[in-house]
Amino acid sequence: MLTKKLGLLLVLLHMPIIGLGQSDDALKADTYQGKMMVRIAELEIETDYLDEYLEILKEESEASLRLEPGVICIYPMFQKENPTQIRLLEIYANKEAYESHLKTPHFQKYKSTTAEMVKDLKLIDMEAIDPESMSMVFKKYKF
C-alpha cells in the first residue's frame, strides 16, 4: 500500500501556464541561459506521520507544477530501504521563480501542516552540469 501511494507521489510534469510572474518566454530564456535553480531537499519524516505527510506532499507538488510556470520540476522520491527518508529534486526556471514559489498559498499550507512531521530538513543547492540537455529528459519519458 505504501509503495502504491509513493508511486503516485512521483510527479514529473512540466505544465507551462502563462500569466503568473514572468512570461513563459522569459522563463524559458532563463532556463536555457543557465539561470535555472536546482536543489535537492533531503527530509526525514517522523514514522507515525509518514502516510499523512505523503498525501500533503503529493498535493503540494501537484499544485506547484500546475499553477506555477517557473516550477519546472518537483520530483519527490524515497529511499527503498527507509521510506521515511524523502528526497525532492526541485528545478525552478530561476531564483525569482523559487522565491515566488515560497509565497504561494499551497506551499505555505504545506509548510504549516507538515512542520511537526518533518524530523530533519537539509536543502542542497546544485548546479546542472549540462543544462542544455535537460529538455531531453522531459521529452524522452512518455507518460
Describe this structure in words.
With 143 residues, the chain is of the alpha+beta class. It has a domain at 36-127: 2-Layer Sandwich (Alpha-Beta Plaits), CATH 3.30.70. It is 42% helix and 27% strand. The protein is built from six helices and four strands, in the order ααβαββααβα. Strands 2-3-1-4 form a four-stranded antiparallel sheet. A hairpin with a 2-residue loop joins β2 and β3 (82-92). α1 (2-9) runs parallel beside α3 (50-67) and α3 packs antiparallel against α5 (105-114). The longest helix has 18 residues, at 50-67. It is globular, with a radius of gyration of 15 Å. It starts with a helix and ends with a helix. Mean pLDDT is 81; it is low at 1-22.
> What ranges have pLDDT less than 50 throughout 5 or more consecutive residues?
1-22
Outline: globular
Tell me the radius of gyration. 15 Å
CATH topology category name of the domain at 36-127:
Alpha-Beta Plaits
**What is the name of the CATH class of the domain at 36-127?**
Alpha Beta
Please, what is the average pLDDT?
A: 81
Structural class: alpha+beta
Read across the widest sheet, the strand sequence of neighbours is 2-3-1-4
Question: Helix proportion of residues, in percent?
Answer: 40-55%
Termini distance? 22 Å
